[in-house]
Automatic annotation (TrEMBL):
<comment type="similarity">
    <text>Belongs to the ATP-dependent AMP-binding enzyme family.</text>
</comment>
<feature type="domain" description="AMP-dependent synthetase/ligase">
    <location>
        <begin position="26"/>
        <end position="398"/>
    </location>
</feature>
<feature type="domain" description="AMP-binding enzyme C-terminal">
    <location>
        <begin position="449"/>
        <end position="530"/>
    </location>
</feature>
<dbReference type="InterPro" id="IPR042099">
    <property type="entry name" value="ANL_N_sf"/>
</dbReference>
<dbReference type="Pfam" id="PF13193">
    <property type="entry name" value="AMP-binding_C"/>
</dbReference>
<dbReference type="Pfam" id="PF00501">
    <property type="entry name" value="AMP-binding"/>
</dbReference>
<keyword id="KW-0576">Peroxisome</keyword>
<dbReference type="GO" id="GO:0005777">
    <property type="term" value="C:peroxisome"/>
</dbReference>
<keyword id="KW-0436">Ligase</keyword>
<dbReference type="InterPro" id="IPR025110">
    <property type="entry name" value="AMP-bd_C"/>
</dbReference>
<dbReference type="GO" id="GO:0016405">
    <property type="term" value="F:CoA-ligase activity"/>
</dbReference>
<dbReference type="InterPro" id="IPR000873">
    <property type="entry name" value="AMP-dep_synth/lig_dom"/>
</dbReference>
<dbReference type="InterPro" id="IPR045851">
    <property type="entry name" value="AMP-bd_C_sf"/>
</dbReference>
<dbReference type="InterPro" id="IPR020845">
    <property type="entry name" value="AMP-binding_CS"/>
</dbReference>
<protein>
    <submittedName>
        <fullName>Uncharacterized protein</fullName>
    </submittedName>
</protein>
């Protein structure tokens, strides 16, 4: 059965981004648009629009025209945010590049080549990787580098780079001109890469219509962002959801605060300093914030400005949801389901407790669940793969093939997510990624369920479960466990953990592959901190991960 939004469909603007943002942002000229959490530098809406147009004009003068592909490889700052918007005012195509400390040279070279960028925008934090890459791979020397920084910061790298300073372009004072624009459904605004949990990262192409559509669908649908909100960019503007939510905040007259630091260390202080009202975090961030609670005995008072906390990025388990609700209350909560291919898909209704469902679709989005083998629609309450149609959907992947294309001829996206629609509350419930499901004894199981049981033990810091091929069982559930300081890795602990799982689950869910102890930095992760279970399984089978099996 198809699940439609509880909200009426909205009209998606067809105007280009410079007109759309210009129309909305010009309504609040004197309000504060941006705040730097570290320096407390502030920019009003009128200053933002002026600065964005100035930068856009100089980038146009430097050769960036409509639909030119430009890699955005900047650490968060007010100028970086303005540069991103300037690219949109030039109708360029922005290729988001994840934080440099999370990329190896091999991964970076792959993305630069795959995206076929003509320009790279980098700064003092990212230029080393750009320099080393261009120096080693001669085919990349053609790329024009625009450096956002000082001459002295650029000097050590100039020999091997075709580089120009953004400040030099700005000094030319070239006025911005409205760019050539095609169709909002075909002009590509952003290319953002999948996290690579199930293979090589793929570049999802989002047209202008995706950006304007997402904004209108969220603003006119659930009550998520309100006029006057102060939104914290808690991770990085590499992440499409942070780009989208920060722009939506501005579209309704709010303020965007760039954290520019690891919020896991002092989240209550950041909220208090900037009077944050809305934030969204990933599970790994939430767990780290909860671990800092003893350092902030007055965290409730420090976070009293918080109106809404949102969660995204993985399947939420009940115990963790309750811990989140207790820590952040009395603010309100909403759980969000989104993906690289569509940005936000659904939100739970804003409420006093964190929900384990992901709510109902946004306007202009419909969802259905199909059998993974027959592709037939399944009844409510039955597990299957989620499919969706949306007005904020990507047009496809870069260089996609018949095998990699996941938008069917009739417009339905195969999400690769396993879940079901509850027959009573009509909410979407996620279980796991289809490709991460373990098939043991001809039954399917979700690693997340077993991981949550393992984390219940006080010795367990983190636990990851994967399916290891097994001649008789098909796949044997196998756990990789990181223990807390003060506990010892031994056979008694491993036996106890296996026993805990066995007591609470059916036989096919037992840890037939055993338990291995490992350091957390050995576990492969994607750019946004998600565990790459497939990489972990492959590395284990190839003997490429340091882990210890108790004797």
């Amino acid at each position: 059965m198809v699940l439609k939004s509880a909200f009426s469909d909205v009209t998606i603007p067809s105007e280009p981004l410079h007109e759309y943002f210009g129309r909305l942002w010009s309504r609040f000229p004197e309000r504060i648009a941006l705040i730097d959490n570290i320096t407390q530098e502030r920019l009003s809406y009128s200053e933002l629009l002026t600065y964005v147009k100035d930068i856009s004009g100089c980038l146009q003068h430097g050769g960036i025209a409509a639909q030119t592909r430009v890699q955005y490889f900047l650490k968060d700052s007010i100028i970086a945010f303005c540069v991103m918007q300037a690219l949109k005012f030039a109708n360029a195509t922005i290729v988001l590049c994840r934080p440099h400390q999370q990329m190896t040279t091999r991964e970076y070279v792959y993305q630069v080549r795959d995206s076929e960028v003509n320009f790279i925008l980098c700064d003092v934090d990212t230029i080393q990787l750009v320099h080393d890459t261009v120096k080693e791979y001669s085919d990349l020397k053609r790329i024009q580098i625009v450096f956002v920084g000082t001459p002295s910061e650029l000097d050590p790298f100039k020999e091997h780079l075709n580089a120009v300073l953004l400040d030099d372009l700005l000094r030319n004072g070239t006025p911005w001109t409205a760019p050539q624009c095609g169709n909002a459904a075909s002009d590509i605004a952003i290319i953002t890469y999948t996290s690579g949990t199930t293979g090589k990262p793929k570049g999802a192409k989002h047209p202008v219509k995706s950006m304007t559509g997402q904004s209108e669908m969220i603003v006119q649908g659930p009550e998520i962002f309100k006029e006057g909100d102060v939104y914290l960019v808690a991770t990085s503007l590499f992440y499409a959801f942070e780009v989208s939510f920060s722009e939506i905040t501005l579209n309704v007259g709010g303020t965007v605060v760039l954290a520019r630091t690891d919020i896991k260390l002092n989240f209550p202080e950041i909220v208090e300093r900037n009077r944050i009202t809305v934030a969204i975090i990933l599970e790994i961030t939430g767990r780290a914030i909860l671990a800092t609670a003893p350092k902030f005995p007055n965290h409730k008072e420090q976070m009293k400005s918080l109106r809404l906390m949102m969660f995204c990025g993985s399947v939420l388990q009940p115990k963790f949801a309750n811990l989140m609700s207790d820590f952040f209350s009395p603010c309100l909560f909403s759980n969000n389901y989104g993906m690289t291919e569509n940005f936000a898909v659904s939100f739970t209704a804003v409420g006093q407790y964190m929900s384990c469902s992901v709510g109902q679709p946004l306007p202009n989005i419909v969802v259905r669940v199909v059998d993974m083998n027959t592709r037939d629609e399944v009844p409510d309450g039955t597990l299957g793969e989620l499919m969706l149609k949306s007005d904020s959907l990507m047009t496809g992947y870069l260089h996609e093939t018949k095998d990699s294309r996941n938008i069917e001829a009739d417009g339905w996206l195969r999400t690769g997510d396993l879940g079901y629609i509850d027959a009573v509350d009509r909410c979407i419930h996620l279980v796991d990624r289809c490709k991460q499901i373990i098939i043991c004894m001809d039954d399917t199981l979700s690693p997340g369920e077993l991981e949550e049981i393992l984390r219940e033990h006080p010795a367990v810091e983190q636990a990851i479960v994967v399916g290891i091929p097994h001649e008789e069982l098909g796949e044997a559930p196998t756990a990789f466990v990181t223990i807390r300081a003060g506990f010892q890795e031994n056979s008694a602990l491993a036996s106890k953990l296996k026993e805990n799982v066995a007591k609470l689950t059916s036989t096919y869910k037992h840890l037939h592959g055993g338990i291995y102890f490992c350091d957390w930095d050995q576990v492969p992760k994607t750019g946004n901190g998600k565990i790459s279970r497939l990489s972990l399984r492959d590395k284990f089978m190839n003997g490429e991960i340091e882990c210890r099996r108790p004797q």
